[in-house]
Design goal:
about 250 residues, Four Helix Bundle (Hemerythrin (Met), subunit A), about 30% strand, single chain, 2 domains, alpha+beta
Length: about 250
């Protein structure tokens, strides 16, 4: 027997529920403004044509509105008979744009290079989609991008020999480049030490396929965003402030 599909318009219109609002930054009351609703069933029958079972599913495609800020977004609620078990009734809900209380909002790094802005955006997208290994790799790529932008090719690295003796050697890998950022006073020693931690996080993610935790990456992103602000945003804002002061001093009293 063929699949039976029935479509309705606004079957779930005016439905009220709660979900997370990215503008209000919390769970708010929402209402369905418009919907397309689909009921479907695929029956199974024996050789005599007698139906003995069926696979059923329901889809609700909804335009929803936050009752706090009036923002319109999209919600897809679905139910699938074969997804039911003792702990799950078979219902799933997806919100678009994807959002939750763990969702990170992109910061505006207007004065960073286009490549760094692109890698930063992709890194945050990976984090929000729980692609944590790729997110860790993205953090490493941001650091590489900073080094390239600041024309840092190498730096002094402390090497511990087999006999326990230490020596300084210039290296052109990411460890050396981070040390080079500190050497050129582009970063403080403490900032460079923090970036070294991200370097190892990225290495583990790439070479050993380790999955960093949500908390590790959330903290790492905080620190990288702080460094991007200190390297690119603050110097430009300070320059703009100086120019504004010069213009004000030139105006006749």
């Amino acid at each position: 027997m063929s699949i039976s599909i029935q479509k309705y318009e606004n079957k779930t219109k005016d439905l009220k529920f709660k979900c997370y609002c990215s503008d209000c930054k919390r769970e708010t009351n929402q209402i369905v403004m418009q919907s397309v609703d689909v009921d479907a069933s695929e029956p199974y029958s024996d050789e005599s044509g007698n139906v003995y079972s069926s696979v059923d599913w329901v889809d609700h495609f909804q335009i929803i509105q936050c009752q706090g800020c009036d923002t319109l977004t999209f919600r897809h609620q679905s139910w699938f008979s074969e997804a039911q078990d003792e702990e799950d009734d078979g219902t799933s809900v997806k919100l678009y744009p994807i959002r939750s209380d763990k969702f990170r909002t992109l910061m505006d790094h207007y004065y960073a290079t286009p490549k760094i802005r692109r890698i930063y955006r992709e890194t945050i997208e990976c984090f929000n989609n729980e692609s944590f290994t790729l997110c860790a790799s993205g953090l490493r790529a941001i650091i590489e991008g900073i080094c390239a932008d600041k024309q840092i090719a190498d730096g002094p690295v402390n090497i511990i020999g087999k006999d326990g003796a230490s020596s300084i050697k210039r290296k052109d890998n990411l460890e050396g480049k981070i040390a080079g950022l500190a050497e050129k006073k582009i970063l403080t020693d403490s900032q460079a030490a923090i970036l070294h931690q991200h370097r190892f996080l990225g290495n583990d993610a790439i070479h050993e396929l380790n999955i960093p935790s949500y908390d590790e990456l959330n903290l790492a992103i905080d620190i990288v965003e702080h460094i991007l602000v200190s390297l690119y945003e603050m110097p430009r804002k300070a320059e703009e402030l100086i120019q504004m002061k010069k213009i004000r001093m030139q105006k006749p009293k």
